[in-house]
Structure formats: structure tokens, C-alpha cells
Amino acid sequence: MHHHKEWITVDILDKIQERRNKKAAINTSQTRSEKAKARTEYTEVNKQVKRSIRTDERKYVEDLAEKAAREGNMRQMYDITKKLSGNHRKPERLVKSKEGEVITNIEEQRNRWVEHFKELLNRPAPLNPPNIEAAPTDFPIDIGPPTIEEIRMAIRQIKSDRAAGPDNIPAEALKADVAATARILHILFNKIWDEEEVPKDWKEGLLIKILKKGDLSNCDNYRGITLLPIPGKVFNRVLLNRMRDCIDAKLRDQQAGFRKDRSCTDQIATLRIIVEQSIEWNSSLYINFID
Asked: At the top level of its lineage, which domain of life is listed (predicted)?
């Protein structure tokens, strides 16, 4: 008998079963096109499962918080609030120095992470920069101040259920009343436009380390993601919406990453088919990975 977490719903279990079926379909596909189609369907269902789990878990915790508030259970309210805000800390993992020695002191561990990311992110410029032709800059892009309608659209486009930046303002707070938020941000964005200077708080972020694979104590086995203030992301989204169509027309069809209605998953499926054909026809294949 399986024991599921209390917030797991029947709909999620059905989606998980559908994901299993899609994964099985990949292995039983007879042709390359069937396999590529099955893999695309699996990827989409997998996204739906993860999205549903996040949504249902959050709703479950919020319902608990409301119940605790009605009953006046302040201890439970405090614990749930910490969980909702993400302010619960896990114990620090052991980390190794560059020489491979284990660091147990928490302050020294943090200093090691600072050292690691400084070296990783602050690489010196190459001595002999490549001679690459500069991209054109004369695009027909609106350079007037952001309008309220543009800001409304940008707020709606910001994804929910994402961690907030250093200001601790989540996307849901801005979306609670899009019209009111847009009016407030319109004043701020126009000030930024006139003074050509963004708030210094927008230049700060929370650097979170995420394990890729391998030894948990080796800093090189982690990648960092930076959590930035959501209002700054709204401003960036306004700029992106203005630039996207002009820039998109200049990009190659082969580029799928960071483009609307495209996915690297499709490119991966195409590459797998090319590899399979190369093996089937016993022909040479050269692949260049650039990061």
C-alpha cells in the first residue's frame, strides 16, 4: 500500500500515471518519428505534473494557514508562514576547499562559496577577443516611456509560484490587483526612463546554489541561479516585449532556446534522430558543444 502526502490529489495521481504511460510509449515506439512524438508528449505531461504538484501543495498549506488563523493557533500559523515565505533553512552541507580539504566551520563554508562564485562569474576578458561583426542596432523599436497597458501586460506575463528576490515581493502580490500595481509601477518606470537609472536594489539578487550531480561537497558540482526583484523583472519584460518581434526576425531558425513558442526539447529530439541515423548508416557525425 502506497502512502501519499496529504495534499496529493486524485488528479495529480492520474497525471502521474499518464506520465508513466507516456514514458513507456517512448520505449515501445517503432519508428524515429513515433519516438520523437512520444518524447514531446512526455515532456509536456511532465511539466503539467510538476505544475500541479506546486499548485496543490501551496493551496494545501494556505488552507492550513487559514484554519490555524481561525482557530487562533499562533504556533502553527508561524510554522506555516515560514514555509509559505520560504524562510526555513536547511542545515549547511560540508564543503571542500580548493585544495580538497573539508571545511566544517559555517562562516568559512560561506566564504568558500563567495570565493567560488567570484572566480566563476568574474572571469577576465580574453586577451585576444574574437573578430566578430557587430550586430545591427538600428531596429524599429519604440523608445518612448512605458505605457500603463504595456505594464499591465508585463505583470500578467510574469510567472507565479516563483521565489521572490531580496525585497521578498512575490509575483502574486503584484498580480493581486494588476490595475493598481500598473499605476504604481508606471510612476516608477517613467522616473527610471527620465533619469536613465534603475533603483540600486534591482542590481542585487539572492544567489542560490543548486546541485548538478556528483560530490555534494565539491563547489564545482553546483550551478547558481540569482533571484532578482520581481518589479525589476516586470520592467525587463516591458523592454523584451518591445524588442522581441524585431530581434526574432533576425535570429536563425535553428535557435530554439529563449524564444517564444519554441523549445530546446524539439532540438534535442532532432539531434537524437540525427545520431540514430548516423549509427544506422554507419556515417561520421561531428557535434560541437559550446557553453
From this structure: Eukaryota
In whole angstroms, give the CA distance from residue 168 to residue 85: 8
CA-to-CA dists, residue 90 to 16, 79, 213, angstroms: 28, 14, 19
Q: How far is CA 59 from CA 7, 86, 124, 158, 161, in A?
A: 8, 15, 46, 20, 11
Strand partners, 209: 224
Burial (CB count <10 Å: 0-12, 13-18, 19+), residue 95: buried
- CA 67/CA 72 separation, integer angstroms: 9
Q: Can you spell out the DSSP letters for 65-113?
A: HHHHHHHT-HHHHHHHHHHHHT--PPPPPPEE-TTS-EE--HHHHHHHH
Residue 183 Rama label (left phi>0; alpha psi -120 to 50; beta): alpha
Write out pLDDT tens, residues 43-65: 998 898 888 888 877 777 767 76
Distance, CA of 231 to chain centre: 16
Reported as a single tens digit per residue, the pLDDT across 181-210 is 999 999 999 999 999 999 999 999 999 888
223 Cβ contact list (under 8 Å, min separation 6): 209, 210, 212
List Cα–Cα distances, 31 to 27, 35, 62, 224, in angstroms: 11, 6, 47, 39
Around Cβ 155, how many Cβ atoms within 10 Å?
A: 23
